[in-house]
Amino acid sequence: MSLPKTPLLAAALLLATAATTQAGVTAAGRNAEGQSAVPADVASANVVAVSAGKRHSVALLADGSVRAWGQESNDKIAVPSGLRAIAIDAGAYHTLAVTTDGQVTGWGFNGSGILNIPSSLTDGSSRAIAVAAGDYHSLALKADGTVVGWGSNAGGRAVPPFGLAGVVGIAAGGAHSLAVKNDGSVVAWGVNNYGQCDVPAGLSGVVEVAAGLSHSVALKSDGSVVSWGRGTEGQAAGISGAIAIDAGDYHTVAVTVSGTVVSAGDNGSGQRNLPTGAGVSAASAGGQHTLVVTGDGPVITAQPQTQTVLPGSNVTLTVAANNADSYQWYFNNAAIDGATSATLDLAGVSHANAGSYSVSVSGTGGSTWSQDALVIVRALQRIAPPEILANGNVRVTFGDSLGAALAYGAQTRFTVQASHDLETWFETGLDLSWNNGAV
Questions:
Q1: Residue 346 shares a structural domain with residue 421
Q2: Which of 58, 99, 261, 274 has its CA 20 to 30 A from that of 432?
């Protein structure tokens, strides 16, 4: 996903650069606020993903914990206590994360309401699978393929186009937004002063998008990269053979299928002075710095994907990696007995199978962790006959149509509507209660 960004500072004499490697995480570029100084607590951890903001950095570890470093003002690196996440994105002034139960949280500066997360993404009524943090706006991709935006909507940057659906990836730039749909097409909205929202005609086969300050990037299924928008610093230069991309203020980075990192664009702060060897598993471009995850383990070329299914469905999760000798799948961070191939098959899923899945891929040089994928099981509900209570009230009980007990707290994930004519419906607004596996 794209990591959004803001303009370079003119005071060049105040800039400091660094290139520090610890525990496979390399940081290059501006370090005046410590954003390129990888902290010690990351050194002994298994890093799954990194995200570079304007002046701060964030890392997602294999156990779902999150670390942040760099500029401390406005609580930019104040990660919520106990957070367990499956996805992160660092913006210019704030960071967003998707928790292991599909909810959205954030921290940092709250200018323009960029941290005023919609209640549907925090109370369990909706599930998110990805987030994107811009300069002054935020986006979340829901499990149903729709996009929610909040924060500043100046220039139309936050509110997605009406009817946008079937989305599988999002990105938030300085003041614009991108979405890639399940048919490989790209949709853009927001400020368009450099043509960053002018999606090239005929663009298709896209699997990932990234948004910089004023430029946009798309990765196609054949590994080619297409850029548009501002390109005066060369940030829109062609890159090929890629499996992942990201866009900073004025530069672009990509991980290649051979496990190397390549870049294009501005290098005024040394943000493109990146490792030259193989073994790169992830990269993120910030305002004036870049983060790279390196190691001697296999390079994952295709991550397992989140799926939303009905009970009884068969689910297949897959991972692809170069130089892999063995695999071990995990469910909610616990190893699954016998799940030791590139494919994990789940037959006839129920609520018990809903959760977070990841895989450790091992080779002669070590192990590489995948990103987490959610399996979301949506069950139809069976409504029991209404009961007339002694006080004249009516009680309606509902539960899983397959007879599985609902988890405690499940009532927060339901919305109940009522009608007096079966045509006009309204939300009851009544409190729901959990009782012995039903609501």
A1: no
A2: 99
